[in-house]
Structure prediction request, 281 residues.
Amino acid sequence: MTDTIEAVFDTVAGVAGDVREVLASRRSYEAGENPSGEQQLAADVYADDRLEDQLLALDGVGSYASEERDSLSVDSGSYHVACDPLDGSSNLKSNNGMGTIVGIYDEQPPAPGDALVAAGYVLYGPITTMVTAVGETVTEFLVEDGEREVLNEDVTVPSEPVTYGFGGRAPDWPEEFAAFVESVEDDRLKLRYGGAMVADVNQVMTYGGIFGYPMLADNPEGKLRLQFEGHPMAYIVEAAGGASSDGSRSLLEKTPTEIHERSPVFVGNDALIAALESVLA
Ligand code: P6P
Prediction:
């Protein structure tokens, strides 16, 4: 298993090097939409095609699922990869952070959160970094020329929360959630919300705090996809000593009925997640 997991992470790091190089020339919108009805950038399609091609070529990988595709690409292998190839790609227009998210499951999607055996994300920031989680080991790497160099071999969510960031428009938040946000602001956490889950969760992993995309008045399931965003990021944050929730339970306890199913997503310090769940109960 470890060989396949490391091969997947090495491959994602290699593709990240290629993606970084082409971002400047792939800011245009494609004609199509992704299965969630979101406009696709040329960079989305490039990252998705490269990841599918290179991940399916790995011996142990049996399927590739992506936020950009209606259905899985299937091969023979015991592990199944689910990717958000370019998370937050709308930030390309404004030159803000974006990422790549990967979950490695031992069941073919739609798969339960407890089928995850590893997960990782690449952050295209001022530098390119990658965070990986296998079991309870969370490691941060510098990614240069497609190669990984360890920066921190024991990443843990800091115990004192500093930042918070929640998606959606405040008037669309449920009242009790809006009251929770006010309590977080009263506790003098700093607002850090940038429109790309990977970059915002990396703030929580670095400084401590909470990130979420809540249930909304016109969309009780929120915006984020469970299989491609919620599950992998929950796996990583929980492995780093934090917690995750859909408002009532860990995201890793959930099983999507279809691969593009959405869920409210909250990740961060366990005390903040517990306080949120008590408010939303
Ligand atoms: P909004 C990016 O499109 C994404 O899926 C996440 O990366 C991010 O957290 C969220 O949606 C941003 O959504 O509504 O703030 O643009």
About this structure: The chain has two domains: 2-152, 163-280.
